[in-house]
Design a protein that fits this description.
This protein has about 325 residues and is mainly β. Helix content is about 0%, strand content about 50%. It starts with 5 loop residues before the first strand and ends with a strand.
């Protein structure tokens, strides 16, 4: 078991591991701060295996973009190679057998060997904001972005297998705009949930229909991220205004608990799968942990940098709910 419960990435390339403790939280700078430049921003982060023994990060926005793989136990950098396919930041990363799958802003979905040799499998269209890998069908990915509708692809056949149909025009007969900012598959299903900058929360069942089976809107909220909650058909969403909510996707959908305490846009959320805890990072430089059911803020840890993404161990649990002091090394 690693000593770190949560890993976070930031705007200026910081990459930190955090151990949540009873009395002290230990924060470890894994990336050497002296070597960082403005182009080292961590744009996405993911576990490299089901056992959560390695962490994969994608860095870079304008110049060279790079994949870095760390051992989650020793915190040692084990692999690093440039990702030179397409243009724009990397906004999706996952393991595909022994290779690494990436997606970039310009739409190229590429497969990389451990030596850094790359091959473009699919072009999912420009202004791609997110690529997510199915846990049920390892050959299936979902993609979406700004005016880039939700699509599913079969990686083995390298072809599109689903393309969402946009909603009917609104009451003014205006086209409904598309701006997907994050998406994920519901556990043990082929259903996909998306959130967007226009406040949309949509659940799709590709086996049933091309339009969403649930369509909700959080008025005046630009939704930036989502995570699957440890309760059937529930998710947690974050917004650019610093709002975070629990959402029930059963029946017609219901917006539930609001979690408070943010002073900046929420950029990443992650849940434990075994206990009712949600961790979040924000542009206000804090890592927060809330209790999903009671809404109580259990931890608030200042991490000095504007934060962009995180992963949390799926079996994370807190032995105490008291606010503790934090330490950094």
């Amino acid at each position: 078991m690693s000593s770190k419960d949560i890993f976070v990435g930031g705007k200026l390339g910081v990459f930190k591991g955090i151990k949540i403790g009873r009395k002290k939280d230990v924060v470890k700078n894994i990336q050497n701060l002296a070597t960082l430049t403005e182009n080292d921003q961590v744009t996405t982060i993911a576990w490299g295996d089901d056992d959560e023994r390695e962490v994969m990060t994608a860095c870079g926005v304008k110049g060279e973009r790079r994949i870095k793989i760390y051992d989650a136990e020793s915190l040692v950098l084990t692999h690093s190679f440039p990702c030179d396919a397409g243009k724009g930041e990397i906004n999706g990363i996952s393991r595909y057998d022994k290779s690494i799958l990436t997606a970039v802003k310009s739409g190229e979905v590429s497969l990389w060997s451990s030596t850094g040799k790359g091959e473009v499998l699919i072009n999912a269209g420009d202004n791609l904001n997110r690529m997510c890998h199915s846990h049920v069908e390892k050959n299936t990915i979902a993609t979406g972005g700004q005016e880039n509708r939700l699509k599913l692809y079969d990686l083995e056949k390298q072809k599109q297998i689903f393309n969402e149909k946009n909603l009917p025009h609104d009451w003014l007969e205006l086209r409904v705009p598309i701006w997907i900012s994050d998406l994920n598959f519901l556990p043990r299903t082929q259903q996909i949930v998306t959130v967007g900058r226009y406040g949309h929360i949509r659940l799709y069942d590709p086996r049933a229909q091309r339009r969403p089976v649930i369509n909700m809107t959080m008025q005046d909220e630009a939704l930036t991220c989502l995570t699957i909650a440890p309760k059937e058909k529930h998710i947690i969403v974050g917004s650019g205004k610093g709002r975070m909510n629990l959402v029930d996707l059963r029946k017609s959908g219901t917006i539930l608990n609001t979690y408070k305490g943010f002073a900046g846009g929420v950029t990443g959320v992650a849940c434990s799968t075994s206990d009712p805890y949600v961790a979040s990072v924000s542009l206000d430089r804090y890592l927060r942990i809330h209790h999903i059911d009671t809404k109580k803020l259990l931890k608030k840890i200042y991490l000095t940098s504007r934060l962009t993404c995180l992963v949390m161990r799926s079996d994370f649990s807190m032995e105490t709910e008291n606010e503790d002091d934090s330490a950094e090394d």
